[in-house]
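for the recovery benchmark. tokens below, seq after
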């Protein structure tokens, strides 16, 4: 029997979404720039921290020898480029204290490190995760469709709302409530806000599909592979809540242009998963560092061409919608 975490890595690399809603957004170019490239500020703030760059490596893996290799590559990349890395769900280490796939600070002592846990875990396990990892922030993921498609997945969900309240009340580091590629609905965002959650990652459809991954592992319910809402649609839906909740975007972001489109729609920062996984699995460390640092410069180029000196100014950029995205927002 193969390791579930290894299956996730294998199928995440194999999957390519047939549709990406970021392609249906066109930004209005500004022909006469006001700023030099050197004046462009990429810094952002969310979950109680200032960050020099508005993108980070999102939660992916942990809990196997392959996951250890991947996480070490990601940690070295994150430290070398000054971006945050979020480990995959800490649940494997909770079950096996000898697991080394999350122990990354010996390899990368200056790493901006965060971690992740599922909302099915009671707050006692969240507190243990924070005590063992000392993360900048704790992502708490909600993944109901993935659980339903997993043969070994959860079937009891009544406790999740109480767990979330307990996390808000007791966890001593900033919390980020995170979807896992199905898109977070506005009712959930509003409910989380009312509990005291200040930051959410809407994680929409368009990138890694855990429906596809679990179907490849054996459920065969392929008609659910496209379940959920896309990241751009979730950002558009969440617009009325953005003054009250910090919105992070992940799911289907492939390059700096997609990042800027997410910022134009209100995201404070973007999380990258598959694109960075593929980068570290197919490139040397030096090549991967050059790509990430290149993205920083490309972000500045695009923002310069939009007459925006910082991320806040991107919210005033005009844009056009096409295709399904236009139809859904007519």
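predicted aa per position
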């Amino acid at each position: 029997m193969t390791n579930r975490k290894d299956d996730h890595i294998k199928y995440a690399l194999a999957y390519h979404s047939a549709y990406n809603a970021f392609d249906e957004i066109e930004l209005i170019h500004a022909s006469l720039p006001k700023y030099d490239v050197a004046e462009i500020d990429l810094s952002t703030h969310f979950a109680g921290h200032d960050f020099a760059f508005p993108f980070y490596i999102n939660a992916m893996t942990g809990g196997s020898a392959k996951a250890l290799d991947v996480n070490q590559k990601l940690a070295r990349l994150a430290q070398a480029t000054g971006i945050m890395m979020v480990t995959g769900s800490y649940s494997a280490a909770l079950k096996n204290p000898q697991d080394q796939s999350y122990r990354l600070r010996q390899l990368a002592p200056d790493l901006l490190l965060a971690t992740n846990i599922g909302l099915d875990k009671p707050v006692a396990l969240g507190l243990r995760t924070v005590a063992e990892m000392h993360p900048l922030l704790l992502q708490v993921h909600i993944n109901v469709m993935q659980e339903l498609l997993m043969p070994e997945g959860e079937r009891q969900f009544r406790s999740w709302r109480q767990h979330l309240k307990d996390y808000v009340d007791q966890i001593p580091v900033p919390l980020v409530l995170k979807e896992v590629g199905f898109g977070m609905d506005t009712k959930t965002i509003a409910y989380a806000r009312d509990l005291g959650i200040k930051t959410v990652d809407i994680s929409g459809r368009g990138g890694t599909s855990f429906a596809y991954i679990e179907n490849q592992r054996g459920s065969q319910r392929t008609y659910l592979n496209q379940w959920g809402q896309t990241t751009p649609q979730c950002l558009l839906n969440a617009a009325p809540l953005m003054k009250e909740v910090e919105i992070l975007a992940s799911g289907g972001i492939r390059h700096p242009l997609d990042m800027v489109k997410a910022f134009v729609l209100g995201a404070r920062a973007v999380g990258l998963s598959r694109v960075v996984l593929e980068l570290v699995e197919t490139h040397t460390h030096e090549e991967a560092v050059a790509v990430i640092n290149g993205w920083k410069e490309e972000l500045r180029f695009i923002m310069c061409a939009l007459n925006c000196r910082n991320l806040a100014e991107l919210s005033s950029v005009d844009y056009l919608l096409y295709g399904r995205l236009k139809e859904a927002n007519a």
